[in-house]
Write a structure and sequence with these properties.
With 150 residues, the chain is mainly alpha-helical. It has a domain of 104 residues. Helices cover 75% and strands 0% of the residues. Helix 1 runs antiparallel to helix 3, helix 3 packs across helix 5 and helix 3 packs across helix 6. The chain is elongated, with a radius of gyration of 22 Å. The two termini are 43 Å apart.
Amino acid sequence: MNLNDWADVGTIFTAVAVVFAVFQVVTARTQRHREFENLYVQRYWQILDRMPDWMYLNQENSEPTADERRLAVVYLRLSEDEVDLRRLGFITDRTWAIWSEGILAQLHTTIYADALTEHAEVLPSLTDFVQSRSDPLSWRPFSRWWAGLY
């Protein structure tokens, strides 16, 4: 092999190493997002553990207690945080697909719908999401991928 052949081999190895490094960066970003999302999953389960069965099963109760109404607001505040974090690019696409479906499902129950109506002024992101039902993150596909959101 002459010097030019070795240069070509070196160029190929360099290109492969750069591609590998880029994928490592994106994978590390995705992992950081997953760790962050885990904190919100833990908060979700803490709230659910305090709820009576009918609340987390999306069933109706004609006379919810004051504590149950307060838990509905706590859940909605968590949902507000999740919508805001998604808009800012901290929540991955897969996780958002699950969370957004769950948020919308909860709001079919009167206690949550009433709480959102009553507290709409302090839950603007959630109110906007429920009305539009569109992803709050408006980034283009490449930006989502580069940020590790795919």
